[in-house]
Specification:
3-stranded antiparallel beta sheet, 4 helices, 7-stranded mixed beta sheet, alpha/beta, single chain, binds flavin-adenine dinucleotide
Length: about 180
């Protein structure tokens, strides 16, 4: 089994994992990210059909209160635009009923979309990291506390590190990762 040393090991290459890797790298801290799937993004997924606007299948809107996300976008030079809400929407309750046009109430809160699709954030963050920082198809199985640090075992690699940061939903972590002790 391959063995790799790093200061911080991040589990998951979604928005949280990549953002943390970006900030740690900017602070000159050695970091590796492991991702169970073959690509980054997690719950952020944008479809790019040819000659059409991008379609969001995951995270879509940003609000003014999401100040950390907005400053990250600024730092990465990713533009945003204001969501335009019309006065009508198509409502399709279920497959046995037809589609209906419904009138929307007045919307006073501003929300934003990411130009080029939310996945632009993932692409931009991944591009800031040095080659080899993110490893795909690597599922974390266990974390063991040892006298000289932590040992984290994935499908085929053993990581020796000082810190492990999980970005998994807590229940998924609990159900799929063994921690010793
Ligand atoms: C349909 C939908 C719409 C949404 N709309 C909005 C919105 O409009 N605005 C908004 O702010 N938020 C929205 N969200 C929420 C937003 O997408 C999430 O909060 C955010 O993407 C979570 O990012 P994360 O990195 O914390 O987690 P995740 O994206 O879940 O990343 C965790 C990563 O860990 C990986 N992983 C899992 N197990 C392992 C393992 N054992 N080893 C290694 N890797 C592992 C996963 O494959 C995944 O890539 C939406 C979510 C969905 C699903």
């Amino acid at each position: 089994m391959k063995s790799i040393k790093t200061d911080v090991l991040i589990i998951g290459a979604g928005l949280t994992g990549l953002t943390l890797a970006y900030y740690l790298k900017n602070s000159n801290i050695a970091v590796k990210v492991i991702e169970a799937r073959h690509a980054p993004g997690g719950r952020i997924k944008t479809k790019y059909p040819a000659h059409q606007a991008p379609i969001e299948l995951g995270a879509t809107w940003l609000m003014e209160q999401q100040t950390a996300a907005l400053s990250l976008l600024k730092a990465l030079h990713i533009p945003i635009f204001e969501q335009q809400y019309g006065r009508t929407a198509i409502y399709h309750p279920n497959h046995t009923q037809g589609r209906q046009l419904v009138e929307l109430p007045e919307n006073n809160s501003v929300s934003y979309r990411v130009k080029g699709g939310t996945y632009s954030i993932i692409k931009a963050l991944a591009e800031t990291l040095s080659e080899g920082t993110i490893s795909y198809n690597q599922s974390l199985h266990s974390i063991t506390l040892q006298a000289n640090g932590l040992k984290a075992i994935t499908t085929d690699v053993t990581y020796h590190c000082n810190h492990v940061v999980s970005t998994l939903p807590p229940l998924l972590f609990l159900k799929t990762i063994t921690t010793i002790p």
